[in-house]
Amino acid sequence: MQTTVDSSSNKEFVSTKVFTFHSWTQSESRTLTVVIPEVANAAYGMYTWPCAPVLAQYVWHNEHLLRGKTVLEIGSGTALTGVVAAKCGARVILSDSALYPDCLENCQKSCKANNLTGVDVIPLTWGIVSPPLLQLPPVHIILGSDCFYDTKDFEDVLVTVAFLMNRNVVCEFWCTYQKRSATRSIEFYLSKWSLQAKEIPVSSFCDEDFSLRMDCPGIDSVHLFIITSKKTDRPQDVSAVT
Ligand SMILES: C[S@@+](CC[C@H](N)C(=O)[O-])C[C@H]1O[C@@H](n2cnc3c(N)ncnc32)[C@H](O)[C@@H]1O
C-alpha cells in the first residue's frame, strides 16, 4: 500500500492510499489497484480500517460471484470494499449513516478517484427503516467492513441485514470483524434475528505477503464471516451468488 499526503487542505491531513489486490486460479492471476482518498485524524469513516482491505481482498478473490449482482455496502466510510465490488462488475450502492454527510461525500470521492460512474451513494442508518432502505432493489450481497466496532450498534446492524434478507431470503452478508475483546459477541443477536454465521479463514483467500503489503496495523486480528438467514424457506445449499 502506498500513501501520499497533501497537508494543504484545511480538513486535517488529506492523503491518498493505493491498495493492490491479487486473485488467482490455477490458470491465471489478476491484479486490481484502487485509490482511496482519506482524511487522517478525523471521524471513524474518514480513513480506511484494517477490516476493509481484508473484505476487499475476499471480494476480488470472488470476482466471478459479484458480476451482475446488486451489492449494498453498509457503513462504507471510504468505501474500499464497495469500490472493489464495482470493479468486479457488480451494481453497487454505497451507504453510510444519515448523520455523517462527510462519509457520504467520501464515498463519492472514492468513486471519482477510481473512475466509477453509476454507483449510488445513499444515507442508511443501521436499525432504522427509512425511505432509502425501503426504496432499495432486492440486494444479493451486503458488504460490511468493521461495522461491529461498537457494541451498542451490534443489534442495529443485524436488524438492517435481517430486514433486507426478509425481502430476498438468499441475500448474504459478507462482513469483516476486528477482534478487540474476547467478551464481545454477536451470537445472541444472530439467534434473535434468525441469522447464522460461517467463518471463512483469511488464509484461504489472502496470499502470504498480504498483511505486509497492506501495511495496516491490526490486520492480523481481522476475521471474515458470511451471515445468512436461518429461515426455513431459504434453500439450504443455494447462495445468492451461485
Ligand atoms: C469503523 S468505521 C468502518 C468504515 C469502513 N467500512 C472501513 O472498514 O474502513 C464504521 C463506519 O460505520 C459508519 N457508521 C457508524 N454508525 C453508523 C450507523 N448507526 N449507521 C450507519 N453507519 C454507521 C461510520 O460512519 C463509519 O463509516
Automatic annotation (TrEMBL):
It comes from the Eukaryota. One of its GO terms (molecular function) is methyltransferase activity. GO terms for biological process: methylation. Transmembrane segments: none annotated. Keywords: Methyltransferase, S-adenosyl-L-methionine, Transferase. InterPro entries: Methyltransf_16 (IPR019410), SAM-dependent_MTases_sf (IPR029063). PANTHER family: HEPATOCELLULAR CARCINOMA-ASSOCIATED ANTIGEN (PTHR14614), HISTONE-ARGININE METHYLTRANSFERASE METTL23 (PTHR14614:SF164). Belongs to the methyltransferase superfamily. METTL23 family. This is Methyltransferase-like protein 23.
